[in-house]
Amino acid sequence: MDPRVAELFGSGAGLMSAAPMHGPGSVNGLGLLSKKTGSKNGKKAKNRATRNTKSNKNPPYLPPEAEEGNIEYKLKLVNPTQYRFEHLVTQMKWRLQEGRGEAIYQIGVEDNGLLVGLSEDDMRASLKTLRRMAEKVGADITVLREREVDYDSDIPRKISEVLVRKVPDDQQFLDLRVAVLGNVDSGKSTLLGVLTQGELDNGRGRARLNLFRHLHEIQSGRTSSISFEILGFNSKGEVVNYSESRTAEEICESASKMITFIDLAGHHKYLKTTIFGLTSYCPDFAMLVVGANTGIAGTTREHLGLAMALKVPIFIVVSKVDLCSKSTTERTVKQLERILKQPGCNKVPMVVDNADDAVTAAQQFAQSPSITPIFTLSSVSGENLDLLKVFFNILPPLSNSKEQEELMQQLTEFQVDEIYTVPDVGTVVGGTLYSGICREGEQLVVGPTDDGKFLGLKVCSIQRNRSACRVLRARQAATLALGNFDRSLLRKGMVMVSPEMKPTICWMFEAEIVLLFHAKTFRKGFQVTVHVGNVRQTAIVEYLHGKDELRTGEKAVVRFKFIKHPEYLKVGAKLLFREGVTKGIGHVTNLHPVLINQNHSLEE
């Protein structure tokens, strides 16, 4: 196991030092040995740990409490004084701010991470105090799990892990974006239909019908476009979806946490759409859906590779377990584990069998990129569907409040991914606010146009998750109404920025690339489709630094030139290019900017 994971989730039971245990016998979020990552060595470590616990009565440790982050340790909270209570409330506000509206409290744990535990009465009193604290800051608490600890006492002692979640105000709920990947017919859209509609599938794809956007998708049963679906959780951790005839607006109002699923196409002929969804919509996580009956087939490996190339944390859902025997499902899971452990992946697979595993998986997954949870479920029978919901409920955001604040203080930059014309509203653009804050009535400039200009416009109104919103903050996705602005002047790949910003636009740029696959040799004059964020355009290879040609697996710095129009790029942006079977990844290292004058038009 990755040493960072072992360090985060404590050391072996019975060892008084807080030194991390490396290797398969590491421990989970409550300091107890993980069943999934163990092997023979893990069993030996477990036996040794058990012997030590029985003889010394020394409980295991969690890592010492960190001053930053959203995890708080409390030994007990029994009848605090008024002054102490106010101090505890202030502390809770800080932890909630660090977790962007969510915090985890470990009750019965000392600040150094020692698992002491509390008696039944003390635990009840502590949870009552915690509930009062939460009410004071406008939050709710949910007990995630309780465990008995073996401490030097005759009375049974417990520790509790509690989720504290803020009740949303002014639609500022926590929003996580999950890209849904997988081969065609693996059950992606059906799974999303079941999660978001709250009704199981009939085995013939009824659940997915609400997700399709085009007639040919309904007829063929295959997704060809990018669609968005939402799944909410309220402050008590209960699922909020369309099951009770709610509208999207009602879901947004009652949810404290929102999971936005980006349903991508599985068929190989729609690969460019899938890549665009992964690069432009900035997903926080990727969910790879694999059919238990077909195993790793078609585009599964390719989608896994894409997510890893773009450094999107990935977890796996094995669907359709109702269609095949237990041995077939186990064979598919073993196949996945073998691929994940290969040198190219270097992942630690973690099969989720119960709610306790789901809690541990959610916490470890966000902390370490190498952990890969694997769920086995059915959209028809509903088997293990609740475990996936528990996972989504607890899954924390990747960025902390400090990073979010820094992004919000920058100048406004909105990436245009979709363009619509809505009757009685006018031109509407959809996309993600990359940095800054965007308000209704704000004046921005959009570009670059084909001749490199930036044009002024006004944001008339904002909608987020299909409900009205007055303020848009960094990393949030939304649609902006632009009134009577001419739609023909807009295209995907443009940016809307603050007039004070001096955007860098270019025809030519340099990138350090790795050629993943090419049938022959990659040389000057070769044309590829380049994906950088929301930019998708054909570019020609102008020059290879220090080399005449490239073969599969080789690295080089390459100069590309766009063939249609200039684009807005940033140094350091991830780049992905393809042409037929040719594929490569890299990052932008240098730009050859086109100068823009004060009036935001191209300098001749």
TrEMBL record:
Residues 173-401 form the Tr-type G domain. Residues 27-66 are annotated as: Disordered. The keyword GTP-binding applies. InterPro entries: EF-Tu_GTPase (IPR050055), GTPBP1-like (IPR035531), P-loop_NTPase (IPR027417), T_Tr_GTP-bd_dom (IPR000795), Transl_B-barrel_sf (IPR009000), Transl_elong_EF1A/Init_IF2_C (IPR009001). Pfam families: GTP_EFTU. Residues 37-51 have a biased composition (Basic residues). One of its GO terms (molecular function) is translation elongation factor activity. Gene3D superfamilies: P-loop containing nucleotide triphosphate hydrolases (3.40.50.300), Translation factors (2.40.30.10). Belongs to the TRAFAC class translation factor GTPase superfamily. Classic translation factor GTPase family. EF-Tu/EF-1A subfamily. PANTHER family: ELONGATION FACTOR TU-RELATED, GTP-BINDING PROTEIN 2. This is GTP-binding protein 2. The gene is GTPBP2.
